[in-house]
Design brief:
The structure is a homodimer. The first copy, chain A, has helices at about 1-25, 30-40, 50-55, 60-70, 95-110, 110-125, 130-160, 160-175, and strands at about 45, 75-80, 85-90. In chain A, about 75% of the residues lie in helices and about 5% in strands. In chain A, strand 2 (about 75-80) and strand 3 (about 85-90) form a beta hairpin. Chain A binds a DNA duplex (30 and 30 nucleotides) through helix 4.
Chain lengths: ~180, ~180
DNA sequence: CCGATCTTTAAGTATAGAATGAAATCATTC
DNA sequence: GAATGATTTCATTCTATACTTAAAGATCGG
């Protein structure tokens, strides 16, 4: 039994490492991903100290990463009455978690670029006014088009959990045919 | 006219910087994104020297980044007969470019993690065999489910350019209703 | 409100990944 | 096939960002 438990922890850790590795290649902070992986895969509530011990990270790092995870809405903080320590828990719905991450990253790292491109586009001479910039204008507009479609997908799939679920069902059904 | 040209270059540069900034927050090398942005938005063919001058980067960096962009299939190399220098050009179809980037990143940074998770899952005791690991197993399976749906989306939208186009049309039509 | 316990902040440090530059390789022309 | 010019490679250097540490700041039970 103790041995089994050890083996399970080893497997969990393997996953935590892999999740951290992948996430950091997508621009998500490694520690954040590792904490999230831990809470996600075990489904337990952990205190900050437990997280620190398990992942071998510093208190400051744990604190900042947990704050970010809470801001993203994928981790919640609890405190039992009469207790001093906070405990942290992940959403137990993988899809909801997935949708939240998508939403948050879009909001933080796609929308500002869309605005920037539109702003830059606004400084170009109007269509037909200056022939040498028309090609560039076209290309900018093509890019804006991509952002518009991303918005469309977002509105239709990631806006809330219900939409995500029905979008997935739809894709699944479509794929069967 | 010369002034106009200067202004246009300034606008292009602004975009190149923004594109580099955004891309690096998504785990894409900044120089790669900047070169791509330059070729993409101007639509011109550039020699390596022109790229080096325009972006102020080193020869080695330019060479490696261009190789990667070619591997991703979003930049092509040409040489005019009787010429010594290679010239580089981006795909002039924004959507095709977009699809290629998605494909490449999935193949390199999502598929290996999917395999790793399945591999790890294989080491867990079978369902019902060890009660303490059943919850963890469930959660792993939830994650695998996410990867399966990503595959499904990929098969139905990013497998080739035609599919991407019809997927977008479909989303657009759906959104109208 | 005091003291204990937990959390955050901010300044300094470490580290992974990106960029450089010079030597090696490759290609083209004469 | 030598000379010239272009490109690639890779060991080294640099830099952005993640992480640590220690001190300040909250919060809560008593």
């Amino acid at each position: 039994m103790a041995l089994e438990q050890e083996k399970l922890v080893a497997i969990e850790n393997q996953f935590i490492m892999e999740w951290g590795r992948m996430s950091s290649s997508w621009g998500i902070n490694r520690t954040m991903a590792q904490i999230h992986a831990l809470l996600l895969v075990t489904g337990d509530a952990y205190s900050m100290d437990e997280i620190i011990d398990r992942l071998g990270i510093s208190r400051g790092n744990a604190s900042m990463s947990l704050r970010d995870l809470m801001e993203w809405g994928v981790v919640q903080r609890f405190r039992r009455p009469g207790d001093r320590k906070d405990t942290y828990m992940a959403d137990d719905d993988m899809w909801s978690m997935f949708a939240k991450v998508i939403r948050e990253r879009k909001r933080r790292e796609l929308d500002p670029t869309k605005s920037a491109i539109k702003e830059i586009l606004g400084h170009l001479p109007a269509q037909g006014e200056a022939p040498e910039s028309d090609l560039v204008r076209n290309r900018f507009e093509g890019l804006v088009g991509i952002f518009e479609v991303i918005d469309l997908i977002y509105e239709n799939a990631f806006k809330n959990d219900d939409q995500l679920r029905s979008a997935i069902d739809f894709i699944r059904d479509n794929a069967k045919r």
